[in-house]
UniProtKB/TrEMBL annotation:
The gene coding this protein: ubiA
Ranges annotated as spanning the membrane: 151-168, 177-198, 244-265, 271-288, 308-326
Reactions mediated catalytically: all-trans-octaprenyl diphosphate + 4-hydroxybenzoate = 4-hydroxy-3-(all-trans-octaprenyl)benzoate + diphosphate
Residue ranges of coiled coil: none
InterPro entries, A to Z: HB_polyprenyltransferase-like, Prenyltransferase, UbiA_prenyltransferase, UbiA_prenylTrfase_CS, UbiA_sf
Topology with respect to the bilayer: Multi-pass membrane protein
Functional pathway: Cofactor biosynthesis; ubiquinone biosynthesis
Any single GO CC term annotated in Swiss-Prot or TrEMBL for this entry: plasma membrane
One of the GO biological process terms: ubiquinone biosynthetic process
EC class name: transferase
Role summary: Catalyzes the prenylation of para-hydroxybenzoate (PHB) with an all-trans polyprenyl group. Mediates the second step in the final reaction sequence of ubiquinone-8 (UQ-8) biosynthesis, which is the condensation of the polyisoprenoid side chain with PHB, generating the first membrane-bound Q intermediate 3-octaprenyl-4-hydroxybenzoate.
Protein name stated in the entry: 4-hydroxybenzoate octaprenyltransferase
Length: 327
């Protein structure tokens, strides 16, 4: 995922570059208004001005924590785990984005929407970005060390897809599949943090989360189809072409099915299934609304996935609490 928010035309991109803002960031974000000027390029490098990325990284963690709580007969998802996942998602989203931008700085310079980013625009030097990457990774490591040994090992394994993803868009027709492996990793973490081992519900949730990521990042890639064609960057949006809606619908259908299987495997009650149904309905609305080469519309649909994920979490968490009251 080469960015996380916003879309703008060439004029907007030039204006953003002139004052250091990133062209695809949220307009009027506190990073641009309140942060010290020296810190702004680094906050932009970490995507702090585009929080949708860490939300999408966080939500599978919270889903998994809620499923694990139900299976373990806990009265609610562990609040300490939820808080750790939040801090870890922000830190590792920033670290992953910094790493991705270091690897992609030459490609980003060829795309109108991304050439104003801190590295291709010269606001941050690669060595400084590397040091910033290390600092963020250390925060993520400090969070990971709060969990049990198995969770630490599983968390460290997530670095494999993170490390290879930036290079996949050069060789794979659908690099979103690798992104999905990385961004969905939290679906394993919430479960293993409670049980110290992986189970079938966690694996089903992970499969569903991977399919969800591929679907929403395909929508996201619609913004860059023209520039990607010129720069030779591969994406699922280019691969699917005029079958875009069918392909995204298939991804979303697989996601809803796998998550429903995870809910069944965890022994959840009716509120969890209601959450899955509402989540699936939201995804169906996205597919219905999707239009080829409509970059602005694609961005709106992409960002709507935070709401979809929160709906699912609300259903799973409410089910855990309700079952605790009943039994």
């Amino acid at each position: 995922m080469r960015a996380a928010h916003g879309v703008s035309g060439p004029a907007d991109g030039r204006e953003a570059a002139a004052d250091g803002r990133v062209a695809d960031a949220v307009a009027g974000h506190w990073v641009d208004r309140l942060a010290p000027r020296a810190a702004r390029p680094y906050l932009r490098l970490a995507r702090i001005d585009r929080p949708i990325g860490w939300w999408l990284l966080l939500l599978p963690c919270w889903w998994s924590a809620a499923l694990a709580a139900t299976r373990a007969d806990h009265p609610w998802p562990d609040p300490w785990h939820l808080a750790l996942f939040l801090v870890g998602a922000v830190a590792m989203r920033g670290a992953g984005s910094t790493y991705n931008d270091i690897a992609d700085r030459d490609l980003d310079a060829q795309v109108e929407r991304t050439r104003s980013r801190p590295l291709p625009s010269g606001q941050v030097r690669p060595r400084a970005a590397a040091l910033f990457l290390i600092a963020q990774a250390l925060v993520g490591l400090a969070v990971l060390l709060q969990f049990n040994g198995t969770a630490i090992l599983v968390g460290l394994c997530s670095l494999v897809p993170v490390a290879i993803y930036p290079f996949m868009k050069r060789v794979m027709p659908m690099p979103q599949a690798v992104l999905g492996l990385a961004f969905a990793w939290g679906a394993l973490m919430g479960w293993v943090a409670v049980f110290g081992t992986l189970g079938a519900p966690a694996l089903a949730l992970y499969a569903g989360s991977v399919a969800w990521v591929v679907g929403y990042d395909t929508i996201y890639a619609v913004q860059d189809i023209e520039d990607d064609e010129i720069a030779g960057i591969r994406s699922s949006a280019r691969l699917f072409g005029d079958r875009l809606r069918l392909a995204v619908g298939l991804c979303y259908g697989i996601s809803a099915l796998c998550i429903a299987l995870a809910v069944r495997g965890a022994g959840c009650g009716p509120l969890a299934y209601l959450g899955v149904a509402a989540f699936a309905s939201h995804l169906a609305w996205q597919v219905w609304s999707l239009r080829e080469r409509d970059g602005r519309g694609a961005l709106t649909l992409f960002r709507a996935n935070r709401g979809a994920g929160l709906i699912l979490f609300a259903g799973l968490a409410a089910d855990t609490v309700a079952l605790g009251w009943l039994y």
